[in-house]
Amino acid sequence: MVDFDRIWNTKLFHVGQDQSITVAQVTVALVVLIGGLLFSSIASRLVGRRLRRGRISEAAADVAQKVIFYTLLVAVVFTSLRLLHIPLTMFHFLGGAVAIGFGFGAQNIINNFISGWILIAERPVRIGDLIELEGNLGRVERIGARCARVRRTDGIDMLVPNSSLLENPVVNWTLVDHRIRTTVRVGVAYGSPTDQVAALIRQAVEEHDDVLPEPAPDVIFEDFGDSALVFDVYFWSNVDSEMELRRVRSAVRFRIDQLFREAGIVIAFPQRDVHLDTLMPLEVHVRRD
Predict the structure, then answer these.
(1) What pLDDT, in 10s, does the model give residues 83-103?
(2) CA dihedral in degrees (21, 24, 28, 34; nearest 10)?
(3) pLDDT digits (tens, 9 = 90+) for 123-177
(4) SS3 for 184?
(5) What one-character DSSP code corresponds to residue 278?
(6) Considering only Cβ atoms within 10 Å of each terminal Cβ, which end of the chain, N or C, has fewer?
(7) CATH second-level architecture of 124-172?
């Protein structure tokens, strides 16, 4: 017992001129720090889970969870320093060295950390948004302290640095609402009644339940193609994913094909007519093998 008391009260180092730090103080500070870290994590998760069960959105609940966690963490760190009787003023002389270290070694980490808080505060990209970044289309599932997790339409998760979401062009398909405009192109054979073609295309689009009536679908006679009369139909749909939008376009194409078959309108396909221009008649020989 005497040895334990001696070890427990052993002085490790001095702070200032008359303040010493013992094993007991360090142990208690570490216990408070580790316990406080666990408490901060559990408490913030419980609050976030409780908020998600209410009427608060996923993004707002995630922001509240992060704010609570970091606030409790800062309080725990300050409490640990107070238990060690370490004044914050003693860290002033480390300011220059820490700044240089951060400048060289942690520049990207700090940049992504600050970018994450900007994303949370300004919310140009939110959890659940459908975004397109550098040709990749996916849905934002999480915005962390360093990076955001985006699940692509093919099911692959991307870890995108937060700074990339601020510094690079990002197309947010659902920033304001879930309405997305799309188009379907179809070509019909030359000689087809163009007015009837346009009417049937409009009918196929308007019959679909997921196509919004306003703004109204717009059928455009786009071009006289090499092998077809080209029509484009533009319409708006209220969808939550790219796959749903593909299903809408697919259903519209099926309906267009059905209406064209019933009306006897032929969907064009590439073809070429070859004309021979010769000065002399061609000699044709028929051989029997």
Answers:
(1) 777 666 655 555 555 556 555
(2) 90
(3) 788 888 888 888 888 888 888 778 889 998 788 899 999 888 888 888 888 777 7
(4) strand
(5) -
(6) C
(7) Roll (2.30)
Amino acid symbol at 121: A
Return left, alpha or beta for 155; rule: phi > 0 is left, psi -120 to 50 is alpha, else beta: left
Does this model's pTM top 0.85? My answer is no
Are residues 222 and 156 in contact, defined by beta-carbon separation less than 8 angstroms? no
For 2-86, CATH gives 1.10.287
- Residue type at 158? M
Which candidate, 133, 171, 125, 179, places its Cα nearest to that of 152?
A: 133
Sheet with 229-238: strands ordered across: 179-188, 229-238, 218-224
Q: Which two tokens stand for residue 33?
A: 């720090």
The rounded distance, in Å, linking the Cα atoms of 229 and 15 is 86
Cα(217)–Cα(237) distance, rounded to whole angstroms? Answer: 10
* Cα distances (Å, whole numbers) of residue 81 to 12, 33, 77, 86, 170: 15, 9, 6, 5, 43
